[in-house]
Amino acid sequence: MNPHALMRRCLSAVAALALSAGALAVAAPGAAAQEEDVDTLRIATNQEVDTFNPFKRRFVITYETSMMTYETLVRMSADNYEPTPGLATEWEESADGLTWTFQIREGATWSDGEPLTADDVAYTYGLLIENQAIHDWNIDFAANLVSAEATDETTFVLTLAEPAPAEVLSREVYIVPEHIWSQYPDPSADDANQLPLVGSGPFQVVEYQTDEFIRLEANEDYWEGAPGFDEVVYQYYLETDAAVAALEAEEVDIVGNGMQGALNPAQIGALASQEHITTNDVQGRRYVSLTINHGTVTQDGTEFGDGHPALKDPVVRQALHTAIDKQALVDTVLDGSGSPATSLIPAIFEQWHWDGGDALVQFDLDEANRLLDEAGYARGADGIRTMPGGGEPLDFRFYHHADNTAYATIVEFVTEWWAELGIAVEAQAIEQGTLNDLAYLGEFDIAFSGWGVGPNPTEQLGMHTCAVLPTLTDGSERSSENSYCNAEFDQLHEQQKVESDPAARAELVKRQQELLYTDTPVIWLYYQNVMEAFNHERVTGMSPQPSGGMYTGQQGFTWSYYTAQPADAEEDGGVPMGVWIAVAAAAVLAAAAAVFFVMRRKQTADERE
Q: Using an 8 Å Cβ cutoff, are 79 and 547 in contact?
């Protein structure tokens, strides 16, 4: 336990004794017990919560709150994303790669005080196997699970259909408490949103008010020691500019990845001039892309949605791609704080990243026009191209997030470039939740998207497999990014999941990315640097991930928020814990003496009466 958390506990004991004394003695007029100060880490956000069910998480905000509330068997290290012990202290793979045995940490408890055992782990993985909805949401990993068993309170055994070492160690399966979740009629439903959440992480979600705040309380009994802050509060700001102003005014402590449409270079520059603010501009793990409605379809082949028919033609999609100057977007929109994107795995993960090679599309408006001319998309009298044979004009709906000024700027650039091709664009700013709903219903033509990617590429690649196509047309199933389905891609995907040689697996992953790039269901625009800022007069001690990297938008565990300390704690001069214990013990003894004195006086008075 960190010394400040220990001191708070000791002072609480002192307060309890003092209150006991006060209950026995007559309080002086105007005297009142003072409430213990609460150290709050305040983080800006503008993302709505889609769910608190960790099996269904999609948004950044729900991913971060899941990471803080629940724990995984294996974490991603703060230094380099390598596997490191979490709830499992050690693990062993069988010779055939099909059986994994995990030793579960002794002494870990749930936030309600119940012990955490291997039975909870077996129950959680059992949901991935047996609950159809949870299985389908996580099909890319769950389909390879055969059984999950607790052989005793500290031993968990996972059996696979095929070897998949990288998947087992890097897949973020958040362990949930069986004694809570087994009471839900259906764990896949939003019953798991009931607050306060019961988890085993360093913080627990206890309160949420839509578009106002999310509050998480520190788990003082966390197995690795209580966090430095008593609570974490995500505060809502509609616009990034408002969050920046709040940081300047010391009304919030951190602005970064929690904002959809994070800080831009101009904001970072302005904040850097503030004496109380530290800024950080580092390579990130997030991409920004344009999703193209090339035809939404269910697993049985039922088409739905109302996408423009021209976008089903790969030539049209390639022409759109060729008419985007990605470097210009990086230079102007990001002021150089990023790099042009080729696929869904950012360059920060060098071993998996595909750089485009000879297949890289170059910005060339003449070439884009040539592609459309040869494919029969002739210009009409108004200069707008039509479908071959003089049909529907190429007039595309282009949706972007209403709260993201960078996206609005990109729309302006892209609209001008596409106008040079004879393509009309109807740009519309839409609230994020509504835009997502329309995207999964297939009721759009082109829309912005963006994801934070982890060091294991399978999860992101799996969102483009045939297996995750929806079975319904109501937009409720959201495992597929945009109805992409390619048999060759799927074959490569299954191969790379079970490939044990890292170099061979990397080649398979890169071939998958090349297929996506060529088929163009998505146009990846750029990899965005993490631009973030925090008030160093309020917060210190945050651990970045990777080493020298980001504080917000971390993966696998929120190292930064767990290790964060109130900056005023530095005034303690790093006093050893033993000194704090001695001071606290002395205070307790003094309070005890006071209680004895009061009780002795009471006894004397009683005798006189």
A: yes
Beta strands in 381-515 (DSSP E): 395-401, 424-430, 446-452
Span 441-463, mean pLDDT? Answer: 92
Nearest to 87 by CA among 14, 177, 186, 10: 177
Residue 509: DSSP 8-state? H
In sequence order, the 6+-apart residues with CB closer than 8 A to the CB of 348 are 283, 284, 285, 527
pLDDT digits (tens, 9 = 90+) for 185-210: 999 988 777 899 999 999 999 999 99
User: For residue 596, is pLDDT > 90?
Assistant: no
Judge contact between 448 and 528, C-beta under 8 A: no
Percent of the chain with pLDDT over 70: 87
Please choose, from the candidates 392, 393, 400, 394, the residue with its C-alpha nearest in 3D space to the C-alpha of residue 427.
400
Judge if the upstream peptide bond of residue 546 is cis by omega within 30 degrees of 0.
yes
Grade residue 140 by pLDDT with cuts at 50, 70 and 90.
confident
pLDDT confidence tier of residue 216, bands split at 50, 70 and 90: very high
Pairing between β-strand 88-93 and β-strand 99-104 as defined by DSSP bridges: antiparallel
Q: Is 132 exposed, middle or buried (0-12, 13-18, 19+ CB in 10 A)?
A: exposed
Dihedrals φ, ψ of 209, to 5°?
-120, 120
Burial bucket for residue 294 (CB in 10 Å: 0-12, 13-18, 19+): buried
Phi-psi region of 295 (alpha: psi -120 to 50; beta: other; left: phi over 0): left
Tens of pLDDT along 397-419?
A: 999 998 888 899 999 999 999 99
Residue 45 has pLDDT above 50, yes or no: yes
Determine if the peptide bond prior to 196 is cis (ω within 30°).
Answer: yes
Q: State both tokens at 116.
A: 């955490």
CA nearest to 417, candidates 343, 360, 356, 366: 366
Cβ count near 250 (within 10 Å): 14
pTM of the model: 0.78
Cα–Cα distance measured from residue 185 to residue 110, given in angstroms and rounded to the nearest whole number: 21
The residue assigned the tokens 């026995």 is 24
More confidently predicted of 258 and 458: 458
What are 14's two structure tokens? 């002192």
pLDDT band of residue 570 (cuts 50, 70, 90) is low
- Residue 424, helix vs strand vs coil: strand
Q: Which positions ≥6 away from 558 have C-beta within 8 Å?
A: 64, 67, 68, 202
Distance CA 575, CA 507 (A): 52
SS3 content of the chain, % helix, strand, coil (to 5): 35, 20, 40
Indicate the Cα dihedral angle 502, 508, 514, 517, nearest 10°.
Answer: -90
Q: CA torsion, points 435, 436, 440, 445, in degrees to nearest 10? A: 40
- Looking at residue 434, its amino acid is T
Output the CA–CA distances (angstroms, integers) from residue 318 to 5, 375, 376, in the order listed. Answer: 57, 12, 15
Q: What is the pLDDT of residue 481?
A: 87
User: 260 or 483: which carries more pLDDT confidence?
Assistant: 483
What pLDDT score was predicted for residue 439?
94
- Which residue from 220, 223, 254, 225 is spatially nearest to 237, judged by alpha carbons? 254
Measure the CA–CA gap between 608 and 589, rounded to whole angstroms: 29
